[in-house]
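User: quick one, fold this
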Amino acid sequence: MTASAPLRVLITAFGPFPGAPFNPTPAVAKRLVQLRRPGLSGTDRHLHVFRTSYGAVDAELPTLLAREQPDIVLMLGLAARTRHIRIETRARNARSVLLSDRDGRVPRAQIDCEGPSWLPGRAPFRRLLAATRSAPVPTRLSRDAGRYLCNYLYWQVLRQSKRPAMIAFVHVPQIRTSPTRRRGRVPPTGDDLAQACARILTALVAAAQSTTARTEQSAGLKTRRIDLPASSS
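Assistant:
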C-alpha cells in the first residue's frame, strides 16, 4: 500500500456446520464490508464466506489471497458455547479427530506434521481489546482458537500470506433472534456483534495505517540521505 492506494481489507466468515444450523458471522461480516464511518475511510473491503469444510478452505484460500492481496485479514467464526467475543492471539497446529466438517470429513490430528505447535497472529491485540471496552458485548483475548475450521483457516492464512498483512481471528457467540425474559446475561443480538466487531476492524485499520505511514516516512528519509550531495573538501 502507498499513500494514494486504499488499504485492502479481506473479511471472511463461515456458513452453518454440524451443531450450528445458523451461523451469524456472514451477516456480521457483510455489515462490516458495507459500514461507512470516518475510521474506515481509505479502505477497500471485500467479503468471502467459506463453506465450513476443510476442502473449501484448501481450494479457495490460495486464489483468494492471490487475488485480493490484503493488507488486513479479519476472520470471523462462531463459538456457540461462549458468551463473549474472543480475539484469538494464535493458531494451533491441531485439528479435532472427533468433529467432522460440513462434508463429513474427519481430518488427522495435526495440520502440519513438521510445523511448530502454534503460530502467532499478526495484530496489536491489546489495542484491539481496548477498542471494545465500551462495546455491547464483553470481549477477551484468547490463546486457544479451538481445533476446528476456525483454527484451521487462521493457521492457513498465517502460513500462506506472503505480504506483511495484519491478520486476526475473532470468535463471536451465538445471537438471540427473539426477545427473551431470561434473567442474567442473555445472548447478544446481531447488532451487538456488528458494533463490537466494527470497533475491532477500525482499530486494525488505524494500526495498519500507522504502520504504513512509519514505513513510508522511513523510506523517504533513506531516499533523502542517498540524494544528499557530497560535501566539498
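User: anything notable?
Assistant: The chain has one domain: 7-177+188-227.
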